[in-house]
Design brief:
155 residues, alpha+beta, L,D-transpeptidase catalytic domain-like, 4 helices
């Protein structure tokens, strides 16, 4: 557990320098969505204080959810994926370009971590419908930060 917090501090400091923030405290101002791929959960922070925590499902070694620090670039309440021919309700896109689109959105989330290890997305982050709606309503375009931490290659 101690290693997790050391790594988290490292990510925060790296994020602060990447986003040209003066301090890590500055980084945590505003809204931050932290996706922990090791624990398959999402934690929403506002001004450094936890607002909500809930289960998630991310990609695996085959279809990775890319680690990194992003911002919510676009919100779409009912995006339709042409690539996968499926709805993506309450989409918060943190990657939106001609080559790739990646979002946090409503989708299937297994009931426990053991089952979650057997399931994966195509790279997006799934949250249960009510949690995805809450996050969608709470997050702001262009200012809410998204941190994707860890990977599932060792599941």
């Amino acid at each position: 557990m101690k290693i997790f917090y050391v790594l988290l501090c490292f990510i925060v400091l790296l994020a602060a320098s990447t986003l040209r923030c003066e301090t890590s405290r500055e980084f945590w101002k505003g809204k931050v969505i932290f996706v922990n791929q090791y624990d398959q959960e999402i934690i929403a922070y506002q001004d450094g204080k936890e607002q909500k925590r809930f289960p998630a499902l991310t990609g695996d070694a085959l279809f990775k959810t890319q680690q990194g620090i992003y911002r919510v670039e676009r919100k779409d309440p009912m995006y339709w994926s042409k690539k996968y021919a499926t709805p993506m309700p309450y989409s918060l896109f943190f990657i939106w370009n001609d080559q790739a689109r990646m979002a946090i959105h409503a989708g299937i989330v297994p009931p426990n971590k053991a089952v979650a290890r057997q399931k994966a997305t195509h790279g997006c982050v799934h949250a249960r419908n009510n949690d995805a709606k809450w996050l969608f309503d709470w997050a702001e375009e262009f200012s809410t930060k998204v941190i994707i931490y860890g990977d599932r290659s060792k599941d």
